[in-house]
Specification:
The structure holds 3 protein chains of 3 kinds. By secondary structure, chain A is α+β, with helices and mostly antiparallel strands. In chain A, about 35% of the residues lie in helices and about 10% in strands. Chain A has 7 helices and 5 strands; from the N terminus they run ααααβααββββα. Chain A starts with a helix and ends in a 39-residue tail after the last helix. In chain C, α8 runs parallel beside α22, α11 packs across α14 and α11 packs parallel to α16. The two termini of chain C are about 55 Å apart. Classes of the chains: A alpha+beta, B alpha/beta, C alpha/beta. Chains in contact: A-B, A-C, B-C. The complex binds flavin mononucleotide, iron/sulfur cluster and FE2/S2 (inorganic) cluster (FES). The site of iron/sulfur cluster has 14 residues of chain C, from α4.
Chain lengths: ~200, ~475, ~850
């Protein structure tokens, strides 16, 4: 058995009653199972399926749709670097390459596959926008966000990630208060406002 | 302090006719000690809207108030919220409310800050909706990456249960029962699409459903029941509408789509961030007045007004008002693809350093990876675009590629796909081809310009 | 059933033609009604709407409300749009053509275009639609998607992932129709791949249908792969001869051999589905192992080939001798359940007129001479139509694992349950139907009469109430059940009284209940009691005609109608074998019935064959029974037959010869006719049509047909029984309660696909048959110290056999379940005929323990 008794109890007593259909407990159940083992093995699909009256194939198929559910064992920590435009414009490619380099991985392997260090400590992959673009380039480690991690910061970041944490921090723009404050002196390098005499 | 007049030429009025500077409505919790917890929320006048809805108003007049406020959905489609609520209520119960907190559109992040800062603001909005529409079960679907946000919400829900705002007989009114829970996604952009979201919430692969039946109808909503799907920001406006009145709300910003808006700006600006401003603020003001101007003083080359899902606006179009109404009407409408689009107001600003071909190739890669795979044009077409653009971006473009690309965008775009993701996927590509064709031609003729942002990672060539 | 009001209609135009169709029709169907075919891939009328392929795009305009400006038409998928009044559908609008061309191009860029080596070639919607609607040249220059080719989804179905167009027809079928979601897409988007978890083989017995559904060559049949091109095939309409449902099939032949079997649409029977046994188990028809030419036993008893004349002569002389010496009643005739009506009719006449014996039965193992347990109520054994479950309010299944017994009807039962019928399943062992059951009764084996009596007692307590709130008058029912209370009945049946009451309440409140009892219940000693109990149940519910017994064999009902049942003073099949073993019956005439494998007591069957002075057998193969015969006649298979067959609901259906038989084999009716001539009382048939003519004229059930076989839908026929009898409550004869004591009660059942001879001739299908097993409860296993997956010896009064042990929660404590069509010898080797229940004990097999087992 790969699901703990505690997990089974939680699925039966907490997740299933939360929804009008048993099947709807699937997403939280898979998260719980992944929290326990770090990934989702075939037995988990079997066991979760049994609890929710679903065929194991059905469960595995659902899990495979979502990129955050891992159907293979991954490294102890998962480092994901956003590669979407806002981060890209701020140098996320270089950040990604440097992280790979420092961990002894090949940044140029192409594609979106995940790479894991031989010692199994880290897995690295590019990821989609994490909704923290004001801290671009943003890095996600396990389920926490860090940024900005510019290429020059990578060594410091790997040594002490917490210094880069943006979890729960307000946006850069709101750092000094609740208002959207116009930037003083913005006129100096702004082009003439459209509509004003050219 | 200098003010830049809006294109409409009149200063924005809001509140008791106060002129700018703008005073935030949604972001009052930011910077306050314990702002996200219940006691502070109550100090800020929290749960007054709910109290009004439960104790002083009948449900239908709540819906009327929201309708009168002209609040349009903030999730992207811009549908009138009051109309959606009223439509749902016309269908038989049980009904459900689903909060769309999936927010995965690249360059959009207002919901994340809103939840972090003020979870009770969302919960109160949800409760008002439930009371008005007659809903007992409400679900928040939040993207899997945002575990922190889910935890903030879970905590706030616990506080609200304990204080009697959620649960049975809310605020002592017998028969007003609402339960709220949080469900986490697990990494799929398409879950933002409301029917895919409901599939995911039901424990399925997040593949959008056919419409009709629409979510507000029996058979079309969550668990087959009539369902209101609203964005986080949409619902956060609601308590304020109840407390200060529909007229107050309708007077803020752009008359056709009024209210406060959380703009998120990123890319080549000096101060990227979330800016709460009235709907209809001009792009010029957003970039130069608030976001600190352009990095390295570049000129603006182009803007994605509603993140990657929208068409590019040229950098020459800075006086455009950033709001749903403006960006979905001519001249911001380009057949056969339709409107430029405002989306959820996630603005990405590209300076003149930007290699637009690289950006567009990346956008195509994003949609190819995020296509759910249910319908043919989106599944096959996004991948084809990614392949061709990837090849071009790597310097292997061929002159006939651009013609093929254009035709492929026409075979995907223009409402041919099951959900709007297909349309989204062609917006950047088609508009970039329209606006910056010479750059693509240069690539295809062997004169690729080297990317200013560099490219340590090859443009994704597919899944391994 | 109440007639529903005629559906409202909607009038619209399709490409300028006006059509009127029922409201709610899909645009694609409305177009079809107007004679315009819109191309589709994902749309299928039997599956949920997907809107996935976008092939069916049309320009559709909605009429605007009066007084409002006209709305511009929009591009919509016609397979998901319901029609409305005044709608205009333009299937050839330039935008629609462009969209379709785009879809085809998208589908083809990653398709391998290996049509020359694809089985679907020539009958492929992808090919046809590409030809009609696709772009004329290719401009895709990227790397094509590479994926699995020739991957086995099971021993029966092969997947070519590169050809798959991701239309979700197969996955929707598996999920929606049999409800076995064992095939699904993995990953998403461009990388979506059809898979099973861990690439385990699919287990469903309905998986073959996905081959028919697949609109390209992605899913092909392992047994048909690379065998033929569609243009090389000949076709014959036939009816499946594997089970009593009577699915309509098409036999596709090549070089006078069946190349494949496909379903034919008959909405009243199988809709468009067939099960895998019906689809794949056809290779036996062209097997080199088939008998060819008759066999006659020599002086030493060894069989040798003979001429037809010698075989006829030999059989005639020996049968005549028994008849002369001991009378016709000394001859027992068993068989007919898998023959055509023509064969069954000829056999019935042969038994009655030539052999002059009342000891005739098609119901192998039967312990009661009464073939129709519902006769006292003036009912047939089956009274509803198969389609009727779709509108049922409740479906009560007792003593049947419908998945194995009436496979395609199970799909219809599921459909009914999905549409709101409350499914009640009473079975000593968990069955597939339990998964969607509304209520489950896990009663003790053999306690069915007690169980139904309990339900009747609960109805006496709380009678059903009609629409006006008036309770049904059940006075007299209490006496009929002997005053038994729910509590007493529940104790006998081993279930909770509350459960019985809940089931009774469900049935009482259901609009159109349907009751199905397994065929095995109809041949047991206590079947008259059960028939009375169920008949009373139907009456108590106000729906006397809702009660049905299944029947075994593809033509069991036809055999019953034809009169292959014990005549006056005759004994049932089980007793015929017992009497033959004890010497009272001197001759056995066995037609297509391998009694060594199918009689519930193997030792007794062997003793009977040994003791009988004459055994005559009609067979396709050299079965164990044939090996003990004195004369063996080689018969023809269903593929080689013309004629008719009657399914369990009494629907008579026509079948046509697909394969010309070799002259060394004859139809059963012909053998019987020839042999009767040899015996001096010639039936005189030389053509099937003559038998059909006589059978239609002679058999009361077919009187309604007016002497003609019906057309393609078939026709329901009923045994005339007079008026339905409703004026008193027949008393249920009490059935003694069976106390198993220490041992395990043996419960047997036939798996849909087992070690039958005809299955063995299709090796791909045979590999899906499980190794012979027995199943016991976890508690019994730990009490007996037995381990799941190990080999055990099953000891019973008749002997011992070795089986693999399955330990699970499907059987209750005290029960040992064993399929009776697996393994050699079959489980009937441990059983004894004539005792109500066989008690067995299990012990580990030592060798396995030494090797270590699992
Ligand atoms: C591909 C796609 C992604 C979307 N993503 C989001 C999203 O992340 N958040 C959101 O609120 N709406 C998103 N939407 C819009 C929703 O479908 C829906 O219109 C919205 O949640 C309705 O809420 P509103 O009326 O409050 O705007 C998306 C739509 C599409 C087609
Ligand atoms: S295998 Fe065939 S039926 Fe299944 S999705 Fe692919 S094309 Fe459709
Ligand atoms: S047939 Fe209509 S979308 Fe596939």
């Amino acid at each position: 058995m790969s699901l703990s008794q505690a997990a089974r109890d939680r699925i039966v007593n907490e997740f299933i009653p939360r929804y009008p259909s048993k099947r709807a407990a699937l997403m939280p159940s898979l998260w719980l199972a992944q929290e326990e083992a770090g990934w989702l093995g075939p037995e988990v699909f079997e066991e979760v399926g049994e609890l929710l009256d679903l065929h194991a194939t059905d469960v595995a198929s659902v899990a495979s749709f979502y990129v955050m559910f891992h159907r293979r064992k991954i490294g102890d920590r998962l480092i994901e670097v956003c590669e979407n435009p806002s981060c890209f414009l701020n140098g996320s490619d270089q950040t990604y390459a440097r992280i790979c380099d420092r961990l002894g991985l090949d940044a140029g392997h192409g594609g979106h596959g995940m790479q894991t260090t031989p010692d199994g400590k880290f897995s690295v992959r590019p990821t989609e926008c994490l909704a923290a673009c004001d801290y671009a380039p943003v890095v996600q480690v396990d389920l926490r966000f860090y940024g900005p991690v510019h290429v020059a910061d990578v060594d410091a970041f790997l040594a002490n990630m917490e210094a880069f944490s943006i979890q729960g921090k307000p946006s850069v723009s709101m750092a000094n208060g609740p208002q959207a404050i116009p930037v003083e002196g913005w006129e100096t390098h702004a082009p003439p406002a459209p509509g004003s005499a050219a | 302090m200098t003010q830049t007049p809006l294109a409409a030429d009149a200063p924005i009025q809001h509140g008791a006719g106060k002129p700018l500077p703008w005073e935030p409505v949604l972001m009052t919790a930011v910077g306050r000690e314990g702002g996200r917890f219940l006691p502070d929320y109550l100090l800020r006048g929290g749960y007054q809207g709910l109290k009004k809805a439960v104790q002083d108003m009948d449900p239908d007049s709540v819906i009327k108030e929201v309708t009168d406020s002209k609040l349009l959905g903030r999730g992207g489609a811009g549908f009138p919220t009051g109309v959606k609520w009223g439509g749902t209520k016309r269908n038989p119960g049980p009904r459900h409310l689903v909060v769309n907190a999936d927010e995965s559109e690249p360059g959009t992040y207002g919901n994340r800050y809103a939840i972090d800062a003020d979870p009770h603001g969302l919960i109160e909005g949800m409760l008002v909706c439930c009371v008005a529409v007659g809903i007992q079960q409400a679900y928040i679907y939040i993207r899997g990456e945002n575990l922190y946000g889910a935890e903030v919400l879970e905590h706030a829900i616990k506080e609200a249960y304990a204080a009697g705002y959620i649960g049975k007989n809310i605020l002592g009114k017998v028969g007003v029962n609402v339960d709220i829970s949080v469900t986490r996604g697990a990494g799929a952009y398409v879950c933002g699409e409301e029917t895919a979201l409901m599939e995911s919430l039901e424990g399925r692969r997040a593949q959008p459903r056919i419409r009709p039946p629409f979510p507000i109808e029996v058979g079309g909503g969550l668990f087959g029941r009539p369902t209101v799907v609203n964005n986080v920001e949409t619902l956060m406006c609601v308590p304020h509408i109840l407390v200060r009145g529909a007229a107050w709300f309708a007077s803020i910003g752009a008359p056709a789509c009024p209210g406060p808006k959380l703009y998120t700006i990123s890319g080549h600006v000096n101060r990227p961030g979330v800016y709460e401003l009235p709907m209809g603020t001009t792009l010029y003001d957003l970039i130069y007045k608030y976001a600190g101007g352009m990095k390295r003083n570049q000129k603006v080359k182009a803007v994605s007004p509603g993140a990657l899902a929208c068409q590019l606006l040229p950098g020459t179009d800075l006086n455009v008002q950033m709001d749903t109404a403006t960006l979905t009407r001519p001249p911001h409408w380009h057949p056969p693809f339709g409107p430029v689009g405002f989306g959820a107001g996630g603005i990405i600003v590209y300076g003149e350093e930007t290699d637009i071909v690289q950006v567009v190739a990346r956008a195509a890669g994003f949609f190819a990876r995020e296509s759910c795979g249910k319908c043919v044009p989106c599944r096959e077409g996004t991948h084809w675009m990614q392949d061709v653009l990837g090849r071009i971006a790597h310097g292997h473009g061929r002159p006939r590629d651009l013609g093929i690309l254009e035709d492929v965008t026409r075979n995907i775009g223009g409402r041919k796909t099951l959900c709007a993701l297909g349309d989204f996927s062609v917006n950047s590509v088609a508009s970039a081809l329209r606006l910056f064709r010479p750059e693509f031609e240069a690539y295809c003729n062997g004169h690729a310009r080297s990317s200013a942002a560099g490219s340590g990672v090859p443009v994704a060539a597919g899944w391994s | 059933m109440t007639a529903s009001p005629p559906p409202a209609t909607v009038t619209l135009t399709v490409d300028g033609h006006e059509v009127t169709v029922p409201a709610g029709t899909l645009a694609v169907e409305a177009a079809r009604a107007a004679g315009v075919d819109v191309p589709v891939f994902c749309y299928h009328p039997k599956l949920s709407l997907a809107g996935a392929c976008r092939m069916c795009m049309c320009e559709i305009g909605m009429a605007s409300p009066p007084g409002q400006p006209p709305r511009p038409p929009a591009m919509m998928t016609s397979c998901t749009t319901r029609v409305s009044n005044g709608m205009t559908i333009n299937t050839m609008a330039p935008g629609a053509l462009k969209a379709r061309e785009g879809v085809i191009e998208f589908l083809l860029i990653n398709h391998p275009l290996d049509c020359p080596v694809c089985d679907a070639g020539g009958e492929c919607p992808l090919q046809d639609n590409s030809h009609a609607w696709g772009p004329k040249e290719s401009r895709f220059e990227e790397q094509k998607r590479l994926a699995r080719k020739g991957a086995a989804l099971s021993p029966l179905v092969v997947l070519d992932q590169e050809r798959c167009i991701v239309c979700f027809r197969c996955t929707r079928f598996m999920d929606e129709v049999p409800g076995e979601a064992e095939l699904s897409f993995f990953n998403r988007g461009y990388t979506s791949q059809l898979r099973t978890i861990g690439d385990e083989p699919m287990k469903s017995r309905f998986q073959g249908n996905i081959i028919d559904l697949c609109p390209c060559g992605a899913l092909t049949s392992e047994t048909y792969r690379f065998k033929a091109r569609p243009q090389d095939l000949d076709h014959a309409d036939s009816v499946c001869g594997q089970c009593p449902v009577g699915c309509n099939v098409m036999l596709d032949t090549r070089s006078n051999e069946v190349a494949r079997v496909r379903p034919r649409q008959n909405e009243a029977v199988n809709e468009i589905w067939i099960c895998d046994k019906g689809r794949f188990a056809h290779h036996y028809t062209s097997s080199p192992n088939r008998l060819s030419g008759p066999w006659v036993a020599g002086d030493g008893g060894d069989l040798r080939t003979s001429t037809w004349a010698e075989a006829y002569g030999n059989a005639a002389v020996r049968l005549q001798a028994v008849k002369d010496m001991h009378g016709g009643a000394a001859i027992g005739v068993i068989g007919g359940r898998n023959l055509t009506n023509e064969d069954a009719y000829a056999l019935a006449r042969f038994a009655a007129e030539v052999l002059e014996t009342p000891n005739v039965d098609f119901r192998v193992g039967a312990e009661t001479a009464m073939a129709n347990p519902l006769a006292p109520f003036g009912l047939n054994a089956f009274n509803t139509t198969l389609a009727q479950v779709e509108g049922a309010g409740a479906i009560f299944l007792i003593g049947s694992d419908v998945y194995d017994e009436v496979p395609v009807q199970w799909l219809r039962i599921r459909k009914g349950a999905k549409a709101g019928a409350k499914l009640i399943v009473a079975n000593p062992r968990a069955t597939e139907a339990d998964r969607i059951a509304f209520q489950r009764l896990r009663h003790r084996p053999g306690s069915e009469v007690a169980l139904v009596t309990g339900i009747l007692a609960a109805l006496v307590e709380t009678p059903p109430v009609d629409g006006e709130g008036v309770a049904r008058d059940l006075s007299g029912l209490s006496e009929a059940i002997g005053g038994i209370t729910v509590e007493v009945a529940a104790r006998h049946a081993g279930v909770m009284p509350e459960t019985i009451r809940a089931v009774a309440a469900t049935l009482a409140s259901a609009k159109n209940p349907v009751v199905y009892a397994g065929a095995r219940l109809a041949i047991r000693q206590d079947s008259p009691s059960l028939g009375t109990a169920l008949g009373n149940l139907g009456r108590a519910l106000g729906h006397p005609e809702s009660v049905n017994f299944f029947v075994e064999g593809a033509n069991g009902r036809g055999a019953e109608f034809a009169g292959l049942v014990p005549g006056v003073g005759g004994v049932p099949a089980g007793e015929i074998i017992a009497r033959a073993a004890s010497g009272q019956i001197k001759a056995l005439y066995l037609v297509g019935e391998n009694v060594v494998a199918t009689h519930p007591d193997r030792a007794q069957a062997l003793a009977a064959l040994e003791a009988a002075e004459v055994v005559v057998v009609h067979e396709l193969f050299a079965t164990e029974t044939a090996a003990h015969a004195d004369v063996v006649f080689p018969a023809v298979s269903i593929a080689e037959k013309d004629g008719s067959i009657t399914n369990l609901e009494g629907r008579i259906q026509r079948l046509y010869q697909a394969v010309r038989p070799s002259p060394d084999r004859l139809p059963d009716w012909r053998i019987l006719s020839d042999l009767s001539g040899e015996m001096g009382l010639g039936l005189g048939y030389v053509a099937t049509s003559e038998v059909t003519r006589d059978l239609l004229a002679d058999i009361p059930a077919y009187a309604s047909l007016g002497g003609k076989l019906p057309g393609s839908e078939g026709a329901i026929t009923r045994e005339p029984t007079g008026a339905v009898h409703t004026d008193s409550w027949p008393t249920i004869a009490p059935v003694p309660v069976f106390e198993p004591g220490d041992g395990l009660t043996l419960v047997t059942w036939s798996e849909l696909v087992g070690n039958e001879t005809i299955v063995a001739e299709t090796p791909e299908l045979l590999t899906t048959v499980p190794d012979a097993y027995v199943e016991i409860n976890r508690d019994d296993a730990s009490r007996l110290g037995l381990v799941d997956g190990t080999n055990v010896e099953v000891h019973g009064p008749g002997g011992a056999v070795e089986r693999i042990l399955r330990v699970n929660g499907r059987v209750p404590a005290g029960v040992c379940f064993a399929p009776d069509n697996l393994g050699s010898p079959r489980i009937n080797a441990v059983a004894r005929h004539g005792v109500a229940f066989t008690v067995v004990s299990l012990s580990p097999v030592q060798e396995t323990a030494l090797i270590g087992g699992r």
